[in-house]
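Handout, section 4.2: multi-component inputs.
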Amino acid sequence: MKLDFSPKDELFRQEIASWLASNLCGEFDVIRGRGGPGDQHMFIDERKAWEQKLYQGGWTCIGWPPEYGGRDASIEEQVIFNEEYARAQGPGRAGHIGETLVGPTLIAFGNQDQKDRYLPEILRGEAFWCQGYSEPGAGSDLANVKTGAQFDDATQQWFISGQKVWTSLARESDYCFVIARTDAKSVGHHGLGFFLVPIDQTGVTIRPIEQLTGTSEFNEVFFDDAQCSVEDIVGEPGDGWKVAMGLLGFERGISTLGQQMLFQNELDEIITLAKTNGSAKNPQIRQRIAEAHIGLRIMRFNSMRVLSSEGADGSLQKESMIYKLYWSSWHRNLGKLAMDVMGAESEVLKGGPYQLNRLQSMYLFSRADTIYGGTNQIQRNLIAERALGMPREPRG
Amino acid sequence: MDFKFTDEQIMIRDTADAFLAETSTSAAVRQVMDSELGYDPQLWRRICDEMYWQGIHIPEAYGGLGLGYVELTATLEQMGRYLCCSPFYASVCLAANALLVAGTELQKLTYLPQITEGKTATLAHTSEAGDWSSSGVKVTYQKQGDSYCLNGTYRFVPDGHSADILMLAARDQDSHGLEGISLFVVPANTPGISREWLPTMDQTRRQGQLQINNLILHEGTVMGSAGEAWPQLEQILDLGRIAVAAEQLGGSQQCLDSTLAYISERVQFGRSIASYQSVKHKCADMMVKVEAARSAVYYAACVGDQFFNQTAGASELAEAASITKAYSSDSFFHNAGVGIQLHGGVGITAEYDIQLYFKRAKSTETFLGASDYHRERLAILLLDTQVTL
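Output:
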């Protein structure tokens, strides 16, 4: 067991750090540190252009195999990339759903034609994706999706109808991956398909959801006989749950390290503020800032343990199941800490009608952290039942 | 970067697990915890002769195995899990570390082989206040020609009443704060030292009190730099903090495991109480606390290795020690407390072991500084520098 990086890894660190120093500037200055959680809808065009810049430097999809344009970067290199990216205040990645979720899913479950059509444009930073999982009646109980897909023999098309919700960045995306029922009579995990659906068509309507921040990262997406080509179902009809769960497996892991660097930037801002406004002398604030620092450092060690122990097949050990509950609880506490460090100033906005500063926005949006992607209550059930082997709750 | 145990480290851990499962049973712990010595000398002999744990991280030149801090913490984790009562912690994690950090070559050659042969040792540094910072060093010395005359009282000394060899921290009688602190190493039977057992709430870790009356020590007993030993003493304490955090991790894990075992058997309202969500959610939180503590301890163990091979400095060691000691203490106390709650009525009986862990959690939490002490130590690092904008 050791923490040190090899000399080769350190060379890699220099390479990415110097590339970022000479490229994340000029026209891209405006997006430094922007586009993180609670801020994802901001500077979309600039951040899409930044994805193409990254591609030109060879820095998109670095963990993908070389045959799909990746570098086959080692775990260490991916850790380093994420660290240096955040250290340089790289913006929230507009392409992250494509790179970290869709790409690995197609590589694992897609056919050659799908790989050929979709992977290159993700790699080049030219196509952007959103996720069509949750529905009004299928939140924590994801297998309860009602959206249906019907195959029309005459046109060789799937027709999709139903409603998805909590879809991040739907308006800014080109495609949505959707789980929908291919067998109308099926229930639960059976009879589902996994579809790659173009957004820009008459059968798709997007309605933004105004959040407590006054902004709208989340959307409702309505499918009304939306068309999806026969070539755009991943796996067979009925394989949808397997593919959908495989995708969620990719959601943990490396990408968590980039998230932690955004958290570090937030904590640094809080520390600077505490020093500036004198709250750094308050013994209780001191304790809480130290506790936040401890929590974030341990979050990193959690990730490094999980990444070092990951099975060759990408399977994660049971210890990785604590990750979501851990970070979301930590981040929600950080939001409250930020407000308490600001004191009475925490109420005062940058301007009307509702211009929040970054920490205010983080404070409010962090209340979503413990809900989306599996609520804390669901996470505790999963940990208890799957990691600790406790008896399952009777399910009606 | 490879943040997982090697096959050899897994073997060391599993060997410790198997040995302690057989020797440090609940009955064995309960048998020794009423005695003044506080451990079974025969078990200690077996640890030294058969397992050779006392030599794990001591270099081969001094009779040790020459392994690292990761191997040491892997063993400590298991000792904590089984509440192993032994002079191991004091002898190896305080005294041997003190010799490695501050001892002269002659002192290392003299005392480390004694420790690897099974002699016991400990470190005494704090006095009445239970203050773990430099101001807690209150025993004074007066320089008299080539010798030193020590006076004062040490408290909270692990195995202080029974150890064969003592490392003593004392300060020049006119000094304050970080200045004027020296470290000495002496056989415990040196005239001028009287020792007694301090009976404690946690009966599985012995503490002693040392009365020092005109103890005369010659120049050869001085470790490190006379009058300037605080930085070294702090490094020794930080290594000790990482070690005790590893024991806490094992204890925290055992609180979860024994609670799961109990609630899986217990039936109320016609079903296992482990099937209730309110119970499951508490167990999930216990797992989060123990796994996060594990990440912290393993990280700190790696920093311990880096410190000994000089790729990490004292400030990195201090940060790792405070992060880990603060989190492991809180994790252990949380899991022991929730463990009692989930055991229900039997949780507060003497018969069930969860109460022993609850007591161990508190005694190890206060030892070498409780969580608030370590958070403040980190706050100084984070907050007490000028803002550079």
